Amino acid sequence: MAEISQVNKNILKAAEKFKDKLAKIKVCIFDIDGILTDGTITYDEALDGYNRTFNIVDGYGLKILMNNGIKVGVVSGGDSKAVRKRFTENLKVDFWFLGNLDKRGAYLEILQMGYTDEEILFMGDEFIDLPVLERVGFSVSVPMASYEIQEAVDYITHYHGGHGAVREICDIVRIAKNLNAKVEGF
After folding, report:
1. Has residue 182 been placed in a domain?
2. Within a domain: residue 181?
């Protein structure tokens, strides 16, 4: 039998370390650019302007959370037809807030749905994410984030944005909460 990777050993340790905080999580919100993507955008008029590339393992991680009753949403200053299609039609996340750089409004809307700060996980990487990162019950960023962002969060992923960082945190939540990893109809 193969030995699990060091990253996966660290994921198991993080799930145990943050188990109490993660036990309260009912909502996971993710920035898009730099978190669900590597931050690269390409412009192609034929493809509706600016477009991004997503990693399938991140999408699968989101589905695992949703299939276990965790509400999942995206919030991004960016907006495009392709982004909307990915999250509203393909992944069918519970909520999305696109096209507004000030993410505090989206966060307040989520709170108005009846959730509390400690029930929300947010994953972001930029200064515009900082007001929400500093408020939520569990905050996450990626290795490429500025040191000020990294100092403000509970956890920094081993994987980079767009390369499995979201799946890493989905796995940590899944393990800490002892959730089923099976996804129907994905």
Report:
1. no
2. no
* Domain tally, the chain: 1
Query: Is residue 108 included in any domain, yes or no?
Result: yes
On whether residue 183 sits in a domain, the answer given is no
Per the CB < 8 A criterion, the answer to whether 14 and 155 are in contact is yes
CATH number at residue 69: 3.40.50.1000
- pTM over the 0.85 mark: yes
Residue 170 to residue 172: CA distance in whole angstroms? 5
SS3 102: coil
Residues 6+ apart with CB under 8 A from 30: 36, 62, 72, 73, 74, 75, 122, 123, 124, 166
* H-run or E-run covering 122: strand 120-123
- Closest by CA to 161, choosing from 140, 179, 147, is 140
Tell me which residue range forms the domain holding 38. 6-176
Round to whole Å and give the CA distance between 26 and 129. Answer: 20
Divide the 186 residues of the chain into consecutive groups of 10 and give the mean pLDDT of each group: 92 97 98 94 73 92 96 92 90 94 95 98 97 98 97 98 98 96 70
